[in-house]
Amino acid sequence: MITSNPVLFTIMCVFGLQALILSGLIAFKRPRRLANIFLALLVFFFALIVINIVLVNVLKDQGLLYVFRYIQLEMLFGIGPSLYFYTKCISDPNFEFKRIHYLHFFPLVLEFIFYRTTFYRTGSDGLYLDVLPTYSYVYLTQQWLGIISILVYSFISLTILVKHQKRLKEYYSKIDNLTLRWLQTPIVIYASYFVLWNVITEIDRFVFDRSLREYYFLPNFVILSIATFWIGFKGYLQKERDFISLKQLPKKTKANFVEKDKVFISRLNELMDAQKPYLNPELNLNMLAELLNMKPKLVSLKINQNYSQNFYDLVNSYRVNEFKQLAKSYNFQKFSVLGLAFESGFNSKSTFNNTFKKITQLTPTQYIKKLKNKS
């Protein structure tokens, strides 16, 4: 065991209990949605880990450690499935949780039962002996399987988020308020946390004879408690508009093997030159398809085949060209670079800067400076 630290215990309790409260608020948040249930479970399971550490050390100080072995709260096998199904729900609002999906939580049931057995109690107590008993290896195996479960589900969830991000660019020209990137950070943090935690623990056990435990044990769980509170708070604040349904678009075809559709290219260029729909920051695939009097799926396919770009990149390329045209005629003592970007259809400074650099290989400031030197 580690030496008790009232300050760190207090911090862990504050954030851990707040995370538990947030999990309840998320579960009953209106409107009631399946995604909220899984987010609540995710926050709940992580909060349990923090409260679990505080409880075991408090009971240890009171000479009641044996009591804790009967009320172990850690539930590693619930974290991965909760994260996975939450990701599925927010990336596909039409997702339905079926009976067969309960199988993902079957290891959680086994884990709960395991913590109620003498195998666990003997194995966990044996970790503090010079020679590990067989039951301790059983306990360590269960812990590592839990970590592997979290890593596998985290990888799958990240894959789903990346694909969702790409599909957003097939539909929208402004995705700042639609992206789910906020969820990628805690997924990476959580996955990395458990790997680093177990690696450091094993190195400390076999190389330093657990002499470094005081330096990393509690600080790590303080970080976990704060991260858990953050994801619960951030998830609770997510608004309804952040959850959108994206229909399946035709699979992309390599443009090199498809003959260019000159009629479509001509129609699109004429529309963009005459009406400049890209000046509308909210322009999406459906709106453009309506202006072209075509079906959205066909427009998406034609854009990919003829421009080797998705809808998002194509529209923003028109906006960059618009900015360059405006920049040649405007007096920058009266108009700012960002002001011209907004007039060109951009609605985000970061999107404008990133897109401009990607297309021109220059920052907007470098481009303006280069433009002034020519004049």
Key structural traits:
single chain, 375 residues, mainly alpha, Rhopdopsin 7-helix transmembrane proteins, Arc Repressor Mutant, subunit A, 2 domains, 16 helices, transcription
Low-confidence stretches: none
Number of domains: 2
Figure out the total of helices. 16
SS-based structural class?
Answer: mainly alpha
What CATH first level of the largest domain would be assigned?
Answer: Mainly Alpha
Helix percent reads 55-70%
Cα shape: elongated
Description of the molecule:
Helices cover 68% and strands 0% of the residues. By secondary structure, the chain is mainly α. The protein folds into two domains: 6-242, Rhopdopsin 7-helix transmembrane proteins (Up-down Bundle); 255-374, Orthogonal Bundle (Arc Repressor Mutant, subunit A), CATH 1.10.10. The chain is built from 16 helices and no strands. The mean pLDDT is 84.
List the helices and strands and how they pair.
Blueprint lengths: L5 H22 L6 H28 L3 H4 L10 H13 L14 H9 L3 H8 L8 H38 L9 H26 L6 H25 L24 H13 L10 H8 L3 H12 L3 H19 L7 H7 L5 H12 L3 H11 L1
Protein name: Helix-turn-helix domain-containing protein
Keywords: DNA-binding, Membrane, Transcription, Transcription regulation, Transmembrane, Transmembrane helix
Pfam families: HTH_18
